[in-house]
Amino acid sequence: PCLVRTVYINSLNHLLTDPPWTSQRRHFSALIPKKEHGKKRVWEQSQLLDVLEARIQQLQSDIVLDVQHAKVQFVKAPKSGRGASSGKSHKKISGERTEVGKTISKGGGQTGKGGGKDASASKSRWMEKLIQEKKTKTKKLNLKLGIEDKPVKTHTMVEKLERKLNQWAMSASPVLVQDNSEARMHEGVQLGVHCYLEACVFCGDIDRAQRLLLTHHRMISRRNLLNIGLYNVMMRVWAKKGSLNQIGRMFILVEEAGLKPNLTSYCAALECMGRTPNCSPKVINRVLRQMKEDGLCVEELFRLCVFRQDERDMVLRAIQTVEPDFQPSINTVLHTCSSPLVKDFYTERADAKYPKLAFSLEELRERFSRQLSMEQASTITIHSVEAMKPVTPHMAKMRDLLAKQRIVWHKALVGALRESNMILASITPKAVRLSLYPYLCLMDQKDYVDIMIQSLSNLPPSGESLHMLAKELGNRVHNKFCIRMKSHNQMVDKLSHIYNEYAELLAKDSKEFDVLPRERWWKLEAEHSSGPSLLGDKTQWPHTVVVELGTYLVDLMVKHMKVNSDILNPAYERKLIPVLYHMYTFRSNKQVGFIKPHPILTQMQQDAMETTLTFDSYVMPMLCPPVPWTSAKFGAYLLTPTMLMRTVVGANQHEILLEKCQDADLHAVLDSLNQLGNVAWRINQPLLDIIISIFNDKGSEKLDVPPPNSEAPKIPRYNQQDSATYSLAEKAHLKREMVKNKKKCSEMHSLRMDALYKVSIANHMRDEVFWFPHNMDFRGRTYPCPPYFNHLGSDVTRAILVFAEGKPLGPGGLKWLKIHLVNLTGLKKRSSLAGRLEYANTIMDDILDSADNPLNGKKWWQNADEPWQALACCMEIANAVRSLDPTHFISHFPVHQDGSCNGLQHYAALGRDVIGATSVNLIPSEVPQDVYSGVAQQVEEFRARDSEKGLKIAQVLEGFISRKVVKQTVMTVVYGVTRYGGRLQIEKRLKEVDDFPKEYVWDASHYLVQQVFSSLKEMFTGTREIQDWLTESARLIAKSGNTVEWVTPLGLPIIQPYHRTRTQMLKGTIQDLSLQITHDSKQKPDTVKQKNAFPPNFIHSLDSTHMMLTALYCYSAGLTFVSVHDCFWTHALTVDTMNKVCREQFVALHSQPILQELSNFLLQKYCSGLS
Amino acid sequence: YGKCSACKARPTLKQPASPCSPRVLLQRRTFSLDSLSSGPGRPQPQQARTDRASPSSAPTHRNLSAVAVSVQDQSRPLGRYDFLDLGEVEENTQRAQLCRTIRRFIIDPALAKLVTHHLGPDLEDSKAAIFECNPGPGVLTRTLLNAGAQRVVTLEGDKSFLPDLQALECLLDGQLEVVHCDFFKLDPMGRGSMRPPAMYSDKLFTDLGISEANWTDEVPVKVVGMFPQRIERSQLWKLLYVLFDRLSIYRYGRVELNLFISEKEYLKLMAKPGDMLNYRAFGALWQMACHIELLHKEPWASFVTSSKNKLAIPKSRLPNDNLCLVRMTPRKDLFSSSLTPSNAATLVMMVKQCLAKRKARLVDRLNMWSPDSGPKLLKEMGMQEDVLTGHVYPMEYKQLFELVDKSQEFTQSWLYEEVLENTQKEGWI
């Protein structure tokens, strides 16, 4: 569906023709000198390109690169006047001379500046190596060109460049070039010890904690690794106990370690004094005095420290002993986001109509308490949709057996865990080795065992890698621990209190607010500052601890879960056999530890067809509106820890970056996430029922409802006895069949389970209204947090979801529903909106038939691109047209508006690429343009030309080049697909074409991908240049040892987490695990990934910015708005308004000097040491 | 295809050359024999295993046969050929260095002679065809022919070397066949295009007129060449899989490999039980399947590499100073009534599972597959109860498997199921 024509046309038209850029002028006045006659000039494509090119050159000459270096050599040759250089090199010279000349003069101009640093001292080994390599390269080139005696002039130029390169190399990354391993060890040890201490403290084993800290403290080599935070952990413990002596000792230790007490240390000291009855004011005064000496003030204490339980009150009591009138001030000044893009949004609130939810305050509060108790339980068990099937006696028997076995296993595991804990406790750990013991005492043994048993039912029949399983178990323990920690810290009451007040903002029966959810929450929190902080100081456990803990639990499971071998077949001899096996699978010569269920277990599970599913609570949508994100650390679920930015486990660079942000910088991003999270949803029940009926029958691959395993192909058994009758080739064939079928079976199983989860969750929520809290990936693309069931999912899940809130269709609503339906079918891609509407009207019979007899009628809907959404839409249309007055029909149905190749749209706008912009509908046109058809057409032209020239493959391809063949490649080219990947995509498409001769597939795909690339190059010139510039910049940044960072126009900082792989070995009883860590910021960046990923990531960061802007402005217009990346959803009534907002924001975004600012940022960040 | 017209006319599928014709040539080539025995040559490798054939026997043998032929010679017209010139070392080196793929080459005539010598001693009489992998400029090819090899098939993957080889092919009378094929791309796993140099082995063998043979028959083909360095390991694994399954080249009998592999890989291949670091499934299975013989060690430097891409010698904890010419002859008695190509995959799986952790107790592994069966099996094998998997000899694994396979208890074991999931050789025939 490409409606973007209408969405973007007018605005871009405006953008390209409207001369006085007055509305946007103020935003970039700093960058474009006003005195220029620019006011009168029409903003043309070329102008930006000029700026861009200049920047590119500036950037390139600043970051002197080896490419240039090589070029320099070519220039020299003719200057030296020697005839020795070959004709080949002459050609190169003439082609490149002009450009090289330019860069050299620029580069040369900058040499000399920034000198004076001692070169040898900070130059690292690898830098030296790099330079050495360059030198040899130069030498080689010289040799090739036959240059023996260099003329003085060029010689000095080369030297200058060389010197500059050296300077640049030194100054570029002074930190990174230091020894990485040491820094990493520091961080690793600190985190490890911190979590260990916290765990010990949580389970009340203070002795163990104290002992560990002291052993570390006593060993000088270890002591140097500690930081103040670790001492603070113990201070807080002693503060709780009111032991002033111990606090005093800790302060001495801190001093011994050469550390400085920080706010938290003083906070603990004061807390302790607050707890001590009749604590002498002299002592308290001394502490306060010392604090002042250390440059810390009491106000900061209350503003920055995280309090648990009654800590805050105790600190206050202590201070009030000496200063009876003291009251911490409440900071109520709101800062606003500085981005010019959202200035209006925050300042002009008079017209804003923030939407309310259709619930009373009472209802919302009741929903909150239900959500709270669900999260407190940390897991939830629901009935799967298969529960609707009748229970056969065999099933009943198996369920009974399984239930009995579970009790046996549970008991065995609890016993085993208790025993192993006792052994662990008795072992006096080696001095600095951190045992797992405290992590195994955080909860009752039975809680751990519950987690283990739960993981058993999720284990696929083909098994799971030990690493994955361990990670899952470890994370579950951590999750449960975090939730316990929160209630332990007594923050639940406070949370309830604040939430109940916050609900007024959203409820329909309370007063209107002119503030945003985040602002309201923030204010409420400031007002209720007493008691524990809501912000938990949760520390993510080190990944190694999570995996080690998980492995430990898996080991227990493998060793202690047994079953009688004759349980299913009494004919077998009775033996107690393990239920799980640890074994290895071999993947391309790598051995991977695997945990596999015994066939008996699989059989039992399959036969029992158990109908309950147990999920972690965060898997379910929320029953109340999520807690608004107020900072990078707080928001979304009530208790379950959630990251604002989802990252690879263990990658902390994003978190650090977000923490560094000014508060106000993130506001726009947080507010848009809150807006997306506040949209209420409910289930489209009639549709869900149809889906369940098919799901519980035989499924349907055509309709994307995965069939059950009973429909899977049978695996041919092959008998030892028969083997003589088969020839070798037949055996090989049989084997291949077996492998294929086995693979198909396990694929079907995982698809089926995935669908089962989704449909079952939907079924569980069928009468509910619910919410999806949102977070984002590191490029700012937003996602709903619940993993299985959400609106980002497949056609099936999307079709099940409708807005909880209904709005009348209004005058244009029905029209939009019809157009939406046509879009979902994938037909009429080249028709105008009017054409699509007309088409919809001609097929009204089919539509109504589909709605009335979805499974027994003409089944028109089943041939749509997105059949289930189409069916849902048919039903909505049917209901609307049959209502008394369609304009008053209350519709809950989300209508989608898609971008047409959104990445290319952004590129075209960035590059002011007129032809490109036309083909992706940024420019008005009679009928919608289709870039894919455009490319296909262009490719066909190339093909015809080649065919005439007698190229065999071009002739073979005659009549096979279609939109479909090239679509995926065109779409992904913007996201950095390489020729290699592109060829695979095309190969796949060609294989789907039945009558295409298979023997030509490889050649044809190879040929086609080349043609697609060259036609794109022809159509999107600016795009290519921008892409090249981005890639080259990223390459240089990465080469210099930095990671690529940038900031979106909304102020979201972004960093690419691609580094060289580091392998970490984890010792385990069951097997050693080697973890491949690719995100370690202490490692050198992975140049190839940094470079290849930058253009697509940058474009994603832009499209996410555009989405966020649209979300915000839709919010102030009172719209319901959700997004699936570049596809925006709203009510039929408000489609026009949303489109308008979408266009305006697209224009506003691209009116910003985006590339200019990126360039400035990169220059400042990576090149500031140069000039 | 730049073949000469004579070649084009000749069918690709052909009968082995008549028994007489090669002998005719032999006499003309006595020069080469002389040069082998009297030429400067290289010092005979002393580090090689002592059990190989004495080098001096080969020339004598050749001289004898030359004499024998000379009688017949009188009744036949002389052939067109003469002793094949190996070409200038300099020139050959340059040509090798122009090769666009990353490869090592045998250019040194003395080295070629040495390899030829190891393929002997009965090159003239041996019925086995010699497959020479990636000959490049063809120094070894010519040396083999000069030494009287009856049937040399060069499998060259790089097009640029083909014309010269084909020219040579035309010059000769059937002793040399040139195929555009990369031996290491036979029966690829992927589903890419099956164009030369990738090829299905059945096409190759059928075209050459070599038919499937019994396992116990004499060696039908001797492969000589060098493993491409980067895929050495995976190639060895692939060959191992097809060997146990009797697929691919092993459908045609016990193909003998005479290949240069890196020293470290050789040491791993030959690691003995008890060497807990290096004794792995890889070596155990090769030792089980083949009679492995180290023929010669040659420093890396003796080989010429294509110049643009300098091949770094892989680092290793094991010594890795040489390339080793290793002969791997599949054992005649590998397959038996209990071990057949159809259940051999389970054996491979079993050994891989056992040796994934060499310090695990064998009895635990066995118990996993079938509870309580471990002690019984070990007793039958006459092994200690606490024997570690890393201490069990390859042949003992084979015996163990044969016992396991007979035992009823194992029929319920997941071990049999497992075999399927671990196969990655869908594409192999």
UniProtKB/TrEMBL annotation, chain A:
Keywords: DNA-directed RNA polymerase, Mitochondrion, Nucleotidyltransferase, Transcription, Transferase, Transit peptide
Top-rank lineage group of the source organism: Eukaryota
Ranges of the PPR repeats in the UniProt entry: 227-261
GO biological process: mitochondrial transcription
Domain DNA-directed RNA polymerase N-terminal: 369-678
Subunit structure: Homodimer. Component of the mitochondrial transcription initiation complex, composed at least of TFB2M, TFAM and POLRMT. In this complex TFAM recruits POLRMT to the promoter whereas TFB2M induces structural changes in POLRMT to enable promoter opening and trapping of the DNA non-template strand. Upon metabolic stress, forms a complex composed of FOXO3, SIRT3 and mitochondrial RNA polymerase POLRMT; the complex is recruited to mtDNA in a SIRT3-dependent manner. Also forms a complex composed of FOXO3, SIRT3, TFAM and POLRMT.
Protein's UniProt name: DNA-directed RNA polymerase
Organism of derivation: Hucho hucho (huchen)
From TrEMBL, chain B:
GO cellular component: mitochondrial matrix
Domain Ribosomal RNA adenine methylase transferase N-terminal residue range list: 111-332
Keyword S-adenosyl-L-methionine carried by entry: yes
Molecular function, one GO term: mitochondrial transcription factor activity
Keyword Cytoplasm in annotation: no
Region (Disordered): 31-62
Keywords, sorted A to Z: Methyltransferase, Mitochondrion, RNA-binding, rRNA processing, S-adenosyl-L-methionine, Transcription, Transcription regulation, Transferase, Transit peptide
Binding site for S-adenosyl-L-methionine: I106, E156, D182
Protein name in UniProt: rRNA adenine N(6)-methyltransferase
Organism, as annotated: Hucho hucho (huchen)
